[in-house]
Amino acid sequence: MTSSSPLTLADLAALDVDKLKGVGEKKSKGLAKSGINSLLDLITHYPRRYIDRTKQARIGELVEGEEASVLVRVVRSSSRRIRGGRVMVNVVVADDSGQLELTFFNQGWRERQLGANTEAVVFGKVGTFRGKLQMANPVVDLVGNKTGKIIAVYPQSEKAGLSSWDYVEFLAETLRRTLPPSGRGLIDPLPEALLDQFDFVDRGAAFNGIHQPESLAEVSVARRRLVFEELFRMQLALVMRKRALEATEVGMEHVVDGPLMQRFRQQLPFALTSAQERTIAEIAADLARPIPMHRLLQGDVGSGKTLVAVASLLAAVEGRHQGALMAPTEVLAEQHHAGIRRLLAGLTVPAPESLLGDRPLKVELLTNRTTAPERRRILSEMLLGQTDLVVGTHALIQDKVEFSSLGVVVIDEQHRFGVEQRAALRDKSGQALPDVLVMTATPIPRTAAMTVYGDLDVSVLDEMPPGRTPIRTRWVEAPGSLDGEPPLDLELMWEEVRTEVGNGRQVYVVCPLIDESEKLEVASAETIFERLQAVELKDLSVGLLHGRMAAADKDETMEAFRRGELDVLVATTVIEVGVDVPNATVMVILDADRFGIAQLHQLRGRVGRAEHASVCWLVGEGKTPDGEARLKAIVGSTDGFELAEIDLDLRGEGTILGERQKGQNDLKLASLRRDRDVVAAARQAAIELIDQDPGLVKHHELAAELELFLAPDEAEFLLKG
To answer: Would the pLDDT of 485 be above 50?
Structure first.
């Protein structure tokens, strides 16, 4: 590369921020505390909002009781000690229409920040004090002496010791040295066809427009381009990973609609839903190919995922292979084993020696609770091919477990099944890899699925089988602890609980903590257990279940509840996934505002599992706007996919993106909430480009950027061809 050639993002990544004018040792350390070490880090540190100087309110127009944003100049500032040793800072600000007093409590540093003649935009609720307009603890954004109409405001950290204005200056210097006419320009890796298709500005114009805009319309155009670029890079990596796995892994071709599957369908006592039929067909198409299946099956609580999983496993058995179902807990593994045996009761398969005729289809359970003699027998029969299906925990892929020919693996409630596990399966299956189906009962929005699970094909069960009773959900606005005089609604709730038990039904009471916590004023399972036994439910049989109990005690308690020996089970969230007691019809969730939407929905799904009418009680105050919104969402909908969209809007994508495999860069500008359409467009564009140029041989700049943003081993795997 010559000194006059355009810069790549790798070039910017190689340039330290201390090369910039005005960045000395102190500010360089401050930038490092904010995760900014290179010019690439800096240029992708995007504004959190913009101030339009032409549309700010004037002080003379402010109205008491209303919130407002106003551009001001500091006249004077002072501070004094008040009761309790706290500091109060008073700042008088003005514009050409009048003066406004700002008051800050316990923020002594504001006196230094807001010196005379400092320009700032302040936002807050307008009040009056002694006849003068006032704002208490307003949001403050310093704007320096910038003269443009639009001012970029950057995320700041007090620990870093940098103001938004510092970032404005550093970025102005970066862009001056990077973009023409004074800089070398930036290489644009997007193919011209994509630039034309979406009418994108070039990369240099986008960075300039996001950091130094002349109008908000320019910001919109720049953001649109840079958001697509982030999502496109991510989708390229995901699509390339999927294609690379397909190209390098050898799978098994299965018989997808043979006699065994037909007999299985014939003996089902119910008709499959159209969603189950569609999903089974999608999986069958995968299983018929010589490429290993990597598919995610999303389905709401009670949508019939287990039956789809069994149909997939039978394809392996039909072709003289074996199937395995891995569950995250022993309790869930045991339940799957019992349910699958019921579904497959009476089915037979050809014996290895044709003269022996058919033998019963054999389903085994392998967990840490399996006795040593049983374990030896099961492992021996698995190795000899005498066992058709094995249900267990992840212990199934441990070293000492060997299969004769493992054909299909179903993983329940395991969000990521990575390279290490695939390698372990290959070791157990020779050169050919088994097909993998990952199931989850926690739906996530379609755009998030494209990002989190972009290297998997996705099937969705979006229809409930007939016979599932809708669950009523009611919210009792009451303190989580049961101290003091309970509100009337809480009394009515416990009365309904007693009535349901009197009708022969059972009840869950869920608490978020095991022990009392002074920091979090939330109900403790042990305290609630003692209280309910003594007061609200004193005549009923109440049990306690939490994660700190010994495994044997947990099993004994859960079995007693299943057998109907306990009327009420007080538990922590250990019962969130997999516990299936059809006779339980009431779910009481204490301190419900402390739980997330997905967790509340999962807990609610523990009831309504038979023909009996069921109810879920949410007990909580909804102290925060988000807490109240979560409770209202659960009351308003039983659709897991609708709730997933609401959840994404409420909490953002941070938690969801935390599921991604390491090596993929975080989204700095794109939002799965605001940019849903762009996710889909980027996904489609990535698929089309990789189909034309699988190894990005004709797109060197894009390949180089993927190498920059991916972990080294991931980049080598994707770009080796």
So the answer is: no
Which pLDDT tens digit goes with each residue over 42-86? 999 999 888 887 777 899 999 999 888 898 999 999 999 988 778
User: What is the C-alpha to C-alpha distance for residues 683 and 450, in angstroms, rounded to an integer?
Assistant: 7
- Residue-range domains of the chain with CATH: 1-48+154-187 (1.10.150), 52-153 (2.40.50.140), 259-288+304-440 (3.40.50.300), 471-637 (3.40.50.300)
Q: Which residues are registered as beta bridge partners of 468?
A: none
Rounded Cα gap, residues 574 and 192, in angstroms: 53
SS (H, E, C) 25-67: HHHHHHHHHCCCCEHHHHHCCCCCEEEEHHHCECHHHCCCCCE
Report d(CA 236, CA 689) in Å as an integer: 8
Q: Do strands 348-350 and 358-360 pair parallel, antiparallel, or not at all (unpaired)?
A: antiparallel
- Closest CA relative to residue 441, chosen from 309, 331, 293: 309
Find all residues with CB under 8 Å of 674, minimum gap 6, and list them. none
What is the rounded radius of gyration, in angstroms, for the C-alpha atoms of the chain? 31
Contact criterion met (CB below 8 Å) for 573 and 587: no
- For tokens 């516990």, the residue is 579
Q: What is the pTM of this model?
A: 0.70
- Cα–Cα distances (Å) from 624 to 97, 185, 299, 478, 599, in that order, read 37, 48, 30, 14, 18
